[in-house]
Amino acid sequence: MQEVSKSFDMTNLFDHQQHEANSFLNDLSLLLGKPDDSTHALRVLSSVFYALRQRITVFESMHLVSQLPLILKGIYVDSWDIEQPLSGADTMDEFLNQVKNFSGSFSALDFADDEEAKEKIKIVFIALRRYVSEQELDQIRDELPKEIAEMV
Description:
Blueprint: H1 2-31, H2 38-53, H3 58-65, H4 70-77, H5 92-103, H6 107-110, H7 114-128, H8 134-143, H9 146-149
């Protein structure tokens, strides 16, 4: 009987995690001005995560990831090579290029120009405040050049 109870609890856990991720993506979609396009929100989130993890230490990334719900953790670490050296993107242009490059063929659709890209990066961090403490965001800002840190 206890075995059935454990599997039921695990199913509820997965359902809860899926609901939480969908809720976050729906909220992010709304903030991005595309309330009916959670796929767009997912691409933008993934692109920002990609550029961020290329710029902050693995140690700091782990602190960030520890505060995220399970599915968002997976999005952050998807295809991440932690042995790859940090990018050293010290300018806004370099950081924006990393964000756009990860978006690939959707880059022009997701980030039409630099101003739109900056705004979407800011929106991602606004949405992440739902889970990430201000102290953690301060630590991330400390690892970024000033002009990039201002978006966090």
